[in-house]
Amino acid sequence: MYSYMTKPKAYLFDVFGTIVDWRNGVSDVSQRFFDAKNLEENPHTFADAWRAKYQPAMEKIRSGNRGYFPLDILHRENLDELLAQLDLTNAFSEEETQELNRAWEQLPPWADSVCGLEAIKQNAIIAPCSNGSIALMTRLAKFGSLPWDCILGAEIAQNYKPHPDAYSKSVSALGLKPHEVMMVAAHNSDLVAAKACGLMTGFIARPTEHGAGQTIDLEPTEDWDVVISEIGQLAQ
Amino acid sequence: MYSYMTKPKAYLFDVFGTIVDWRNGVSDVSQRFFDAKNLEENPHTFADAWRAKYQPAMEKIRSGNRGYFPLDILHRENLDELLAQLDLTNAFSEEETQELNRAWEQLPPWADSVCGLEAIKQNAIIAPCSNGSIALMTRLAKFGSLPWDCILGAEIAQNYKPHPDAYSKSVSALGLKPHEVMMVAAHNSDLVAAKACGLMTGFIARPTEHGAGQTIDLEPTEDWDVVISEIGQLAQ
Asked: Which of A3, A41, A206, B153 is most enclosed, with most CB atoms within 10 A?
């Protein structure tokens, strides 16, 4: 796979969608909260609606209209907004709402993620370059046994992907040059931004990230350095 | 051990001296470099002299007289200064000097460190709160199989211990309050600073950190929350 290129000294991974299944994870946790209150919300619709507020919330920060706040805060603001839209503002106590917001710390890894990361880790540094905070990524790693060497990404950069700082400052934090590092993601747009910063790129399709009817990111849209079907293939 | 206190949700560890044996590690790597050039420097004297430049270099940053630079840079500046003092400026090539500077990434853990950290990690977050950079701490962890959940400390805070930011910003990055976190160190001065920030404190003596004639930090100098003789005792 690497015959034509330098083997990366470090691999940075997108996490939500690439390493873990956020949609079923958020749905499972939300379902438990709805059941406890005899609410009949569809948990997948709820997860999708919560996630739909993700990019607009980060865009305020990326555009410079708001200082950096960790994703846990944005998730909570988005949750409050969503609950209000669904007339559920008073359905949960403050403590319960805080706990529901921790759904993002309890997302199951895709079946190939953990063993694949373990294999890559034998010969290179592995780290998330996610929009999740250090706190979120740390707890998510403990939940799913993700064997990161360190946590990089938005909080290190104090800005959100796909802002160039998120990639460049993560690379700098390792004392490496962009061409020594590969960004791995299930989202073509993430790789477009990483490539523009000089990183190598690896694409993996996650065709059910958005559920059965997914229409985006089913295929690589550019000539990425590698295209894999399981994370562990990067170790070969 | 914890009957009178809340069990910490996270443990932050000093690393140089507390988790790893920096003096023998730096000495071993330096010895290889001296041998290759038929130099008869005493490697322990060399390690001690290099380390002696550590606090003054950080003090310029803590005092606000210099912006934050990662410890790898300070180590390199101190190495160049030391080699000059020993009339060894031209003894090593630039590439060799860079490699010698990486001695700090190759420090052996004390015998109880790895298994102790593994045990604590089952029920709490573990992270370094060191003056080492993310790059340095990440590579040191790979060298010694230190199973950190994430890397905190000076680079997260953009300031060096014992400045309060180094502790407070590390705690904040976990989304925790200071009273939920314990700082563990072999240096009483580190714990004085952590305690002032509201953290719990744990002391472990490392009586040979500075060699056989060590005179400091042989005993706890204050009534720390816990005093241990092996890291794994914190898991009990």
From this structure: B153
Give the residue range(s) of CATH 3.40.50.1000 domains in chain A: 10-21+107-235
> Parallel, antiparallel, or unpaired: how do β-strands B181-185 and B152-153 relate?
unpaired
Give the DSSP per-residue string, B220-231.
Answer: -SS--SEEESSG
Kindly report each contact of residues A58-63 with a partner whose C-beta sits within 8 Å and lies 24 or more positions away, as own/partner. A58/A131, A58/A160, A61/A159, A61/A160, A62/A159, A62/A160, A62/A163
Mutate to test the interface with A, among B104, B134, B181 (most CBs of A within 10 A): B134
Q: In this structure, which CATH number among 1.10.150.240, 3.20.20.190, 3.10.560.10, 3.90.1720.10 belongs to the domain A23-105? A: 1.10.150.240
Where in chain B do CATH 1.10.150.240 domains reside? 23-105
- Cβ(B26)–Cβ(B48) below 8 Å: no
Residues from chain A that touch B150, judged by Cβ atoms under 8 A, are 134, 137-138, 141, 148, 150-151
Note whether A135 contacts B72, CB cutoff 8 Å: no
User: How far B133 CA lies from chain A's nearest CA (Å)?
Assistant: 8
Residue B236 CB neighbours (<10 A): 9
Q: What is the pLDDT of residue B180?
A: 97
Distance from A225 to chain B by nearest Cα, in Å? Answer: 25
pLDDT of residue B102: 98
Count CB pairs under 8 A between chains A and B.
56
Residues of B in contact with A139 (CB under 8 A): 125
Q: Are strands A152-153 and A125-130 parallel, antiparallel or unpaired?
A: parallel
Answer whether residue A31 shows pLDDT above 80.
yes
CA distance A62 to chain B (A): 20
Model confidence, pTM: 0.96
Residues B152, A135: C-beta atoms closer than 8 Å: no
To test the contact with chain B by mutation, choose from A120, A123, A134, A145 the residue with the greatest count of B C-beta atoms within 10 A, namely A134
| 3-state secondary structure (DSSP) of residue B130 | strand
Tell me: pLDDT of B2 over 80: no
Nearest by CB: A135 against B138, B139, B173: B173
The pLDDT tens digits for A125-173 are 999 999 999 999 999 999 999 999 999 999 999 999 999 999 999 999 9
At B115-163, the pLDDT tens digits run: 999 999 999 999 999 999 999 999 999 999 999 999 999 999 999 999 9
Q: In whole angstroms, what is the distance from residue A136 CA to residue A176 CA?
A: 25
pLDDT tens digit sequence for B35-73: 999 999 999 999 999 999 999 999 999 999 999 999 999
